[in-house]
Amino acid sequence: MALIVMKFGGSSVADAEAMLRVAQRVVSTHREGNQVAVVVSAMGDTTDDLLDLAAQITPGPPPERELDMLLSAGERISMALLAMAIERLGVPAKSFTGAQAGMVTDTSHGHARLLEVQPERVRATLDAGGVAIVAGFQGISTDDDITTLGRGGSDTTAVALAAALDADVCEIYTDVDGLYTADPRIVPTARRVTRLTIEETLEMAAHGAKILHLRAVEYARRFTVPLHVRSSFSDQEGTWILVGRPLTEDTMEEPIISGIAHDKSLGKVTAVGIPDRPGAAATVVGAVAKAGVSIDMIVQNVSTSDAETSDISFTIPEADGQTAVAAIRALQDEMGFADVLYTSHVGKLSLVGAGMRSNPSVASELFAALADAGVNIEMISTSEIRISVICDQADLERAVRAVHTAFDLDAEEQAVVYGGTGR
Ligand code: ADP
Ligand code: ASP
Ligand code: MG
């Protein structure tokens, strides 16, 4: 008998019919003799709809405690309906809010981090032969308030629950048949990847492949939780995310491209003419971090205006553009730099795969493919298993398709996107 955590995303439970289909799937896994804990997201676009509602009530940013209270309601609706659907099929089921399931978080509303998972009630339900359903994306803070884990956070709930229950596998059910070499909504000929290492998955998730919440992948690595990403709409095998890549003789020394991730919601800030002295980068970057904005790619070079100064450019989430610019402007007098420039609508393409660094041809092929597609590269960064480039957002989707083809990743068949709006 295995213990399985099954997580269903919003598109898998978008309406009553979908909910009943998911219930069937849960019940058949249970009837095969497994213990089953389910994590469920809000139905369809409920979270976005609740955010829109809040925006109609308050002109500015809503009070964060109340926003979390509001958003957590989306997952409550799903968990109760799914429990009813499973009961109807003759299997006892009990739903639990994040708080009831023992998801204890810190107090940072909107992006709370899990501190501890105490799944006693979930465990008791499983031991009594029932199915436990846990609301994803939410927890209870050390101050006893309801918190949420950030958009896409139900994946993290699922992995954390799987780790706490010592589950055999955490199955992530979504609206595509697994992890593909690129987002199938952008590249219809994307190829499904059957197995991927956790490191490659981390790079894909960190650089925009929203199929998995980054923190879920980090958690899975830390607690060695096997992940199986698959569709709730089909019986396809999906993608297994493994701790070590299975090497075969012919692939051993080859650079292996596992996929292309893209992120179309970035902005770029440049502080121009910073006096070239030790500590300058630390001050600039420190100020942005202190404002709560996470910096992604950083480039420093000799200023275009003179040789005594340098320019520092970095990318940030587009939504944080104004906050980051204000944080840098506040330093302008003290540091004596010339100007702060901001570009919104910046896109990032990341090519992920093992053996990148030791195979210089990968970078040159990537740049050549972008040049052929007429895409201008604004920034470049590399890691052992990734090369990322920054370009204009308007060029991004074309760039992803061109690079996908240049690296021979196109499949014969088109990938199926079963549902969801991709929001
Ligand atoms: P869920 O509602 O199940 O959590 P998400 O919308 O969060 O689903 O994630 C699934 C979506 O992720 C897919 O519909 C697809 O558009 C997108 N996606 C982005 N990159 C990839 C990729 N490399 N492989 C598969 N899907 C991807
Ligand atoms: N419902 C939340 C969201 O839309 C959490 C999730 O779906 O993972 O972001
Ligand atoms: Mg998701």
From TrEMBL:
GO cellular component terms, semicolon-separated: cytosol
Catalytic activity: L-aspartate + ATP = 4-phospho-L-aspartate + ADP
Coiled-coil stretches noted in the UniProt entry, renumbered to this chain: none
Residues at which substrate binds: T47, E75
Key word Transferase present: yes
InterPro entries in alphabetical order: AceGlu_kinase-like_sf, ACT-like_dom_sf, ACT_Aspartokinase, ACT_dom, AKii-LysC-BS, Asp/Glu/Uridylate_kinase, Asp_kin_monofn, Asp_kinase
Entry-linked PROSITE patterns: ACT, ASPARTOKINASE
Gene Ontology terms: biological process: diaminopimelate biosynthetic process; homoserine biosynthetic process; lysine biosynthetic process via diaminopimelate; threonine biosynthetic process
Protein name in UniProt: Aspartokinase
Organism expressing this protein natively: Ornithinimicrobium humiphilum
